[in-house]
Design goal:
The complex is a heterodimer of chains A (about 180) and B (about 475). With about 180 residues, chain A is α+β, with helices and mostly antiparallel strands. Chain A folds into 2 domains: about 100 residues, Alpha-Beta Plaits, CATH 3.30.70; about 60 residues, no CATH class. In chain A, about 55% of the residues lie in helices and about 10% in strands. Chain A is elongated. Chain B has a single domain, classed as Formate dehydrogenase/DMSO reductase domain (Formate dehydrogenase/DMSO reductase fold, Up-down Bundle), CATH 1.20.1630.10. In chain B, about 65% of the residues lie in helices and about 0% in strands. Classes of the chains: A alpha+beta (about 180), B mainly alpha (about 475). Chains A and B meet through α1, α2, β2, α3 and α4 of A and α2, α7, α8 and α9 of B.
Chain lengths: ~180, ~475
């Protein structure tokens, strides 16, 4: 029974075989991968993807990646949290007015704590959802043929292409020190 | 061929001399093997600890059942000390929870690389510590099923919580802390869960890692947004760390009770929380690195740096004790003076002296480098620190409440009941249960971040 469920899980996680069209090059050395990225982008393959166990600044520069847009989503969330926290406190005292000791109903200093905590809470949640949305997570289907070595010590460069272009990409990858180059047609 | 290559072969002399550098002959592949070996079928020692843990937890559950059936009177609360062990435990566990985010977020912002080897354990401790702390205000309600009244929600009576109350601030601070710390913890695990997923053979484990990894592939787009967001998590978590224990301290400081009504409470509590939290991290790291033979990952240097943090915060805590006494002596309030005299020479004199000895005198040993690097001795010192910090909260709460303005209350003293003692023991078991499961189920060390300390493999060829 346990084994049967295990097999089912295995089947579910593996999924049906995917069809990809392009070239996957596997590199060990970071500088080789960086030079390959520069060369491939120079050949016009701007939509290539790089897979690596850790991020490398040299590859990021070669890819000409700008800063993540997640910060804007976070800023909007934080602003909403701050205003929402104060708004909740102010709304609550007006919706059930109870004057104590002749003091003002809206007393901002104690509400600062609620506003501050809400600012952090909603800002962090926006940051999380921004990261997941922009990073396309959770990812059920990989957009390139995945290799488990990418979380170990290998760097993968995936170039979606076909035909003549694929041949040139393979040559370029080999020329830049790829350990393996696989054509997916 | 490439697997046999060691990064040290290409490292510069400065790289190798750096204390952050992972010692020995290490490759990225070997690092995966070393750090992910913790995730395996538990052995008899683990099962023995887990069963002992569950037995203690059961005792606490019996005590709580007793309290629900018979009422809050089974706790030793006696007027005027109506806040006693439960609030002490709450503050203690919030303090323990404090360190994880400090080590992780603040040290991340300051680019202090020694955090990489220790932060996952510290973050786990934070999440489990807050989960433990959060139980105590609910138990202290007496009618825990009404705990949801603490939260603001639209209801037919149009009644809202009192947002001017420090207790309501606490609800917001602690729930925000739990949420943000959990997010920070789980987001950090994503790349490591993917590494565990890629080597898992058991389909059930593979499913768990797939869920925790969110289908991570390590693509450049994922890394970009991951680190983009991680920086902001750290930026949010840092002021949050400082605010949470400040808010907890205001539960007391906003009241007019002698011994509580003090403006130094916020920084004093924050320093105390970091002090006890870092001590607990050391208490957890020493047996883990010894048990799993990870001395080359969590080095003596890492532990020594944490010990220095304990020493620093110990001096801040000791200074705060002295300032409190000075203010009581120099200030105009006779009640305050009486209260502080009572702390060390009154009914609870023993608690006051345990606090002072464990938090101020014993940590002085950490001035010696040999002691900071002697793991068994360090472990024992950290145990004393945690005992001392529990007693600090006991002294602040119980001895202050037992000595109010009205002298008629001075003769009635609080004694801990067996139910409270069982629940206190169960809180450690509750925390331990999560921790034991965590180290066997999820990567207890950040594989991806420790990998970054290795020198990246470079062939050294010029671009063609």
């Amino acid at each position: 029974m346990i084994k049967a469920i295990g097999n089912m899980i295995d089947k579910m996680l593996t999924g049906p075989p995917q069809r990809y069209q392009g070239v996957m090059g596997i590199f060990f050395y970071v500088d080789d991968a960086t030079h390959a990225v520069t060369a491939l982008r120079g050949m016009g393959h701007k939509n290539l993807s790089v897979y690596s166990p850790v991020p490398h600044h040299t590859i990021e520069h070669a890819l000409e990646q700008g800063p993540s847009l997640v910060r804007w989503i976070t800023a909007v969330g934080a602003a909403l949290g701050l205003t929402g926290g104060f708004a909740l406190c102010i709304y609550s005292v007006y919706s059930y007015p109870l004057v104590v000791g002749g003091k003002e109903l809206v007393s901002l200093p104690p509400f600062v704590v609620i506003g501050y905590e809400s600012f952090i809470l909603i800002g962090s949640l926006a940051n999380l959802f921004g990261m997941l949305a922009l990073g396309r997570l959770p990812q059920v289907k990989s957009k390139a043929p995945y290799d488990p070595r990418f979380t170990e010590d290998k760097i993968g460069i995936w170039v979606p292409c076909s035909g003549e272009a694929a041949t040139r990409v393979q040559e370029t990858m080999r020329g830049h020190g790829a350990e393996e180059v696989k054509l997916h047609a | 061929m490439s697997e046999e290559l060691t990064y040290e072969a290409q490292a510069t002399k400065e790289d190798l001399a750096s204390p952050e550098h992972v010692a020995g002959t290490m490759t990225q592949k070997k690092l995966n093997d070393d750090l992910l070996k913790l995730i395996s079928v538990p052995g008899p020692i683990w099962w023995g600890l887990f069963l002992l843990d569950l037995a203690i937890l059961s005792l606490g559950l019996i005590a709580e059942r007793n309290q629900i059936a018979l009422g809050i009177g089974v706790a030793g609360h006696t007027r005027p000390a109506m806040w006693a062990s439960y609030v002490t435990n709450f503050v203690f566990w919030v303090g323990i929870a404090h360190c994880g985010t400090l080590v992780s977020a603040i040290l991340f912002l300051f680019r202090s690389h020694f955090r990489r080897a220790v932060y996952r354990i510290a973050e786990a401790m934070t999440v489990f510590g807050v989960l433990t702390a959060g139980i105590f205000p609910i138990l202290h309600l007496g009618r825990p099923w009404f705990a949801y009244w603490l939260f603001p929600y639209p209801n037919q009576r149009q009644i809202w919580p009192n947002f001017r109350s420090p207790l309501e601030w606490d609800v917001f601070a602690v729930t925000t802390y739990l949420t943000v710390s959990s997010i920070f913890f789980l987001v950090g695990i994503i790349p490591d869960a993917a590494a565990a997923r890629d080597r898992a053979k058991n389909p059930y484990m593979k499913l768990i890692f797939t869920i925790f990894s969110f289908g991570w592939t390590g693509g450049n787009n994922q890394w970009k947004h991951f680190y983009g967001a991680y920086l902001y998590f750290a930026a949010f978590a840092t002021p949050l760390v400082l605010s949470v224990h400040s808010v907890v301290s205001w539960d007391f400081a906003m009241a007019q009770i002698p011994g509580w009504h003090s403006t130094i409470f916020a920084p004093y509590f924050v320093a105390g929380a970091i002090f006890s939290g870092v001590a607990m991290v050391i208490n957890l790291l020493i047996p883990i690195r010894w048990g799993f033979k990870l001395e080359h990952i969590v080095t003596d240097d890492h532990i020594e740096k944490l010990a220095k943090l304990v020493l620093l915060t110990s001096t801040i805590v000791g200074y705060s004790y002295l300032v409190e006494f000075f203010c009581a002596w120099y200030g105009p309030s006779r009640f305050e003076r009486e209260m502080f005299w009572n702390r060390f020479f009154g009914h609870y004199w023993w608690a006051g002296w345990i606090m002072f000895t464990c938090n101020v005198i014993i940590p002085l040993l950490l001035w010696f480098k040999k002691i900071r690097r002697h793991m068994p001795v360090l472990f024992v010192i950290m145990l004393f620190v945690n005992v001392g910090m529990w007693f600090e909260r006991f002294v602040i709460i119980v001895s202050s409440l037992s000595h109010p303005f009205n002298p008629s209350g001075w003769d009635v003293n609080y004694r801990m009941s067996w139910s409270e003692a069982a629940i206190l023991a169960a809180s450690f078991a509750w925390f331990g249960m999560f921790f034991l499961i965590f180290i066997r189920l999820l990567p207890a060390f950040s594989v991806a971040e420790i990998k970054e300390t290795l020198v990246a493999p470079m062939r050294g060829r010029k671009a063609s």
